[in-house]
Amino acid sequence: MEKRRKKKKYTGVKFESGLIKEPLINFGGNHVHIDPKTGLSIYGPYTPDGIEVPTLGNMIVGVVGPSDMISDSFRWLEACQGMLTNEGTNPYSNPHFPGVNNESPYQCSLVFGETWYETLDDNQLNDGLKGNYNERLNKIVKLYVEAIGVLSQREPNPHVVLVCIPQQIIDLCTVRIGVDGKEERVKLNKSEKKNLKIAKTGQTFLFDDMNPLSKFEEKIYAHKNLRRGIKAEAMRYGIPTQIVWPRTLNLDPSKTTKRELSSQDIATKAWNFTTALYYKAGGTPWRLKHVDSSVCFIGISFYKDIHDKKSKMHSSMAQSFTSAGDGYVLRGKTFDWDESKSKSPHLDKEGAREILEQVIQMYKQQNNGSLPSRIVVHKTSKYWEEELEGFSEACAEIPQKDFVAFGGRKINFFRPGKYPPLRGTYLKLSDSNFLLYTTGYVSYHNTYNGPRTAKPLDIIEFVGDSPWDKMLSEIMALTKMNWNTSSFSCGMPITIAFSKKVGEVLSELPSDITVIKPEYRFYM
Q1: Bridge partners of 63?
Q2: Using CA atoms, how far apart are residues 273 and 185, in angstroms rounded to an integer?
Q3: Does the chain have fewer CB atoms within 10 Å around its N or its C terminus?
Q4: Is the pLDDT of residue 148 over 60?
């Protein structure tokens, strides 16, 4: 009689779990809080030691766009000077907005008016919207950037420019919103699709003037995205921009049309708008409290230059951030990448060393020649051996270094009840492999504010000198440094969250702009 095999005993997956404490952020007068909106409303924006009032005393705001939107923007800016209220159903996560003026906690005034606006008349815009999608997009980008150039010659210069985009341009030059509220991408006609297909084959011709695709390729590789195109082209004038849709300026949400989509409540909208404006104008809304100011956090990512018609070239890009929130962008060398090796590009030893040396040099320039005490590199793919060697060589004089890689294995956990795990919950799968809930139930808000099920951040590799819990705590802190919003936190650390967005702007940078703006506020 055949012996029956013994069933293997299922032992389950062993892991350690716990909770990372919510990081504190620093506001005016060296006061701390865990919530950006609460901290700003009580203590005002961050002030350096020994200084009683915020260093930014006023924000000069320029405006470009059609006349009706310029009028709407003035009404919106006037509204943001005073208190804006909402229904008050959750005063912790959605508090009233206190207003930006000299008497409010901001201790800052909004300055705008005739000196700092430039009107795009209807005839200009209508002419710009003629032609196919690529023609429209590039003519509209040119119109707006020329207007920003005019404002750059005004004295004093505006600190930031609102770029007001009417619904007609949104419909014809960006992703279109259908009547059902769903996105509908602008479609090319049959001729454009056919020519695009031929262009992508890389067919060559003896002389350029024999190539029937020459003019078409110029349209394809000029600009592909309205926001990115404006950000990239406007960089030459040295003034940060804030893209504004009609719904942003709508003071009565009940009048929002289906085409414009529903908007946040007016107070939350003002919180997010003014936080981004304050940072772009040169202010510091808040900074991290318990993170060493001499630590330099770096995000490494890659992008394709749309002006390269072969579309096979990858450029490396690095963002560096400190606990103060200082963000700088550096562009590495362009290089070929064989996607048969890996879908995710990787740097060779020399490329890794060079781009990190650039970051360290930038840090020294901004810190009186001092080196960082520690380098922390974040990346969205595992490190190849030659990358680590190159990074390590660049950090030879740095006392400590850590390398963290994020993945997307879509592992999730659940807990009993209707709420997801608490924000800060971690699961240690191994010494170099973690899951961290950077979104989840927030006790201070007594709720979970996410739109869908909270998913943990997947940390697939950790190589370094620091304790793993310190690494997780810093990731939690860096999720609170997104000044494009006043939300409690974001899902990704700032080093990674905007790497794609920054890369998209760099990918559309005109060839005649050889020196890029390093400050992060030009890419937001």
Answers
A1: 117, 162
A2: 27
A3: N
A4: yes
Mean of all residue pLDDT scores within the chain? 83
Q: Which residues partner with 425 through β-bridges?
A: 19
Give me the residue spans of the domains in the chain: 58-84+113-186+219-274, 290-522
Paired tokens of 202:
């890389």
Reading the block at residue 242, the tokens are 């804030």
For 37-41, 176-180, 226-230, 412-416, which range has the lowest pLDDT when averaged over its residues? 176-180
Helices 385-394, 349-366: axis angle to 10 degrees equals 30
Using one digit for the tens of pLDDT, what is the confidence trace for 204-222? 333 333 334 333 333 333 4
Q: Measured between alpha carbons, how far is 121 from 138 in angstroms, rounded to an integer?
A: 17
Can you tell me the distance from the alpha carbon of 140 to that of 502, in angstroms, rounded to the nearest whole number? 21
Quickly list H helices, 290-418.
349-366, 385-394
Give the pLDDT mean for 347-352. 92
Mean pLDDT to the nearest integer, 164-191: 62
Q: What is the mean pLDDT of residues 298-314?
A: 71
pLDDT at residue 446 tops 80: yes
Axis crossing angle, helix 499-507 with helix 226-234, rounded to the nearest 10: 70
Q: Is the pLDDT of residue 156 over 70?
A: yes
Q: What is the pTM of this model?
A: 0.84
Residue pair 161/64 in contact (Cβ under 8 Å)? The answer is yes
Residues 6+ apart with CB under 8 A from 233: 141, 142, 145, 223, 510
Q: Give 58-84+113-186+219-274's CATH code, choosing from 3.40.50, 1.10.60, 1.20.120, 3.40.1350.
A: 3.40.50
Distance CA 503, CA 513 (A): 15
Contacts of residue 346, Cβ cutoff 8 Å, sequence gap at least 6? 337, 381, 384, 386, 387
Within 367-453, residue ranges assigned H as helices are: 385-394
Pick the more confident residue, 257 or 149: 149
Which segments of 253-308 does DSSP mark as H helices, in order?
Answer: 266-280
Q: Tokens 């404002």 — which residue?
A: 151
Rounded Cα gap, residues 363 and 369, in angstroms: 8
d(CA 12, CA 75): 61
Question: From residue 295, how far is each of 4, 217, 307, 374 by CA, in Å?
Answer: 61, 45, 36, 5
Report the pLDDT value the prediction gives residue 13, as an integer from 0 to 100. Answer: 65
| pLDDT score for 313 | 58
Query: Phi/psi of residue 209, each to 5°?
Result: -75, -10
Superfamily of domain 290-522: Ribonuclease H-like superfamily/Ribonuclease H (3.30.420.10)
Q: What is the end-to-end Cα distance of the chain in Å, rounded? A: 74
**More confident position, 173 or 263:** 173
Tokens of 289: 């409290």
Cis peptide before 156 (omega within 30 of 0): yes
Q: Which residues pair with 97 in a beta bridge?
A: 84
**CB 319, CB 329: distance < 8 Å:** yes
Number of H helices, E strands in the chain: 14, 19
